[in-house]
Task: structure prediction
Amino acid sequence: MASYDYDVIVIGSGAGGSVAASQIAKSGKTVAIVEAGALGGQVLNHSCIPTKALLQAASVYEAAKRGATFGIRASTIGYNYPSVRAWKDTVLRATKKSYSNEHYQEQGIGIIGGRAYFIDPHTISVGKARFTAKQFIVATGSELVLPEIAGLSTAGFVTHKEALDLSRPPKHLAIIGGGESGVEFAQLFAIFGSKVTLIEKSPRLINHEIPNASSLLAKRFNKEYGMNILTDTSVQSVSSIGLKKKLQLQRKGKNAQLTVDEIMLATGKRAVIDIGLDNAGVQYSQSQIHTNKFQHTSAKHIFAVGDCSGPYNYTHTAAYQGQVVAHNIVHPRSPVAAQYHAIPRVLFTNPQIASTGASEAQLKSGGTPYDSATVPLSVVAASATTGYKDGFITVQSNRTTGVLLGGTIVCPQASELISELSLAVQYHMTAQQVAHTVHPFGTWSELLRVACAKLAKKG
Amino acid sequence: MFHIHYTKSKINAPHWDNLFLSQSPSKRVVHKSHTTSYDRHELASSIYRACMKSFGYAGEAEKTAVEVCEHVERWLADKEEVTKADISRQAARALQLFNPRGAHEFAPVKEYAVTEDSYGFIRL
Result:
């Protein structure tokens, strides 16, 4: 019987990799994590945590500016951007403790610093050393896709990593890409006073969400922050004029120019797959590593989790897949399959946009008979007490059984509310069951009850 | 009774030292159970031979070999150790871009065999 250095080697210490490594280590197997960058991966160091910390600071600043509506007056309301960044760094330091070297060593997990590359199905090369393992978990995450725009690299740009550490918000910022990352950063810099131009190739922003949510966000961005939103627009070339950058745009066959102080790329991500997968016998495409429902790759002893395997690029999906893989490695005779029918998707804008389960478009294309109900924010008391009216909730249920299939919430606390809807979808609850559950008066959660009651009446 | 012996004519690669001013990057290449150093000249020669086999011109073959080596070395930059098959795969991909006819003759990777090249030739 072949002997290996470790039972399991996890490549990548992000959400998926670290969850899997911790759970497998608890079962008594020898585990090591290989990490090329800082422990914790993208989410902790360059993505979710620092972005949300900055967005929190921005939302406090925005709330303070709107205080007059509620009779609150302050002589001066301002911000000090280095202090805002210091807040982000404090949050990062606190969170990083859970991902420190010592934390992993306490759990008996070995840490190998460096870039892993498969030499054969059971061997990886990291720097000058080689390590063998019986099983591997690939959790390499994703990286930014750089669009092919003439002159872009010469003129210079920032990605989400550098945007977090800018010394001050740029006067005029052009963000290329109107997906999740693009709209979150657009709002962040707009609140801190930047003039933001958001450039998106497709006809609407966040095109994975329902059209009503996209149009509401675009209108609000334009009205509240004076943001310039250019959909159906592609960037042809970029050049620099002194310290400024000039973009050549093309919109519906017409050419235009835009001069800005900084360009930020938010053009989507692709899986990190350049780790010698061919040598390990793992099948993959340009966008992701192919896995089955048990997260097995085409090589039986290699699993993949997180952004590198899809289908969603969310931290919570990666962590969930990590749990699935840990179970399947520890209990190979009773494997569990990953379920994706109630994965929540959240956008931390103002209003927040959160959705779960199947959208109306998916139900239509799948031929599922369904009913849908939409309710505006103004139907609940929380809308009156907070003075917030832009938003809605829409839920879908199976026309025959009444079982909830999915929904979208656009309101200030949507990121919190979506968990209740996800729970209902996950455990096949009916709209009537949710409608009959007592929700506290004066909270946004009443929205879900009202929408489900409307849906139950239809059924 | 007599036999006609065909001898394979050897294609001589030019002096690569003149084409590459810098030294080969120091990378380890695994082939079967052996580990050797990455050898730019070996790769360039095999690319050159493939281009010449596809009825290319010597100058074009040299230029392609240099471009392919540069492409492979850019890919190699952040890696310490790779396999010989990896280098062949990367070279074949680059060769597809720079010289599709040469890619067909590039022996190490048959999976990238060209069925119809950019000139419209159907390869069986």
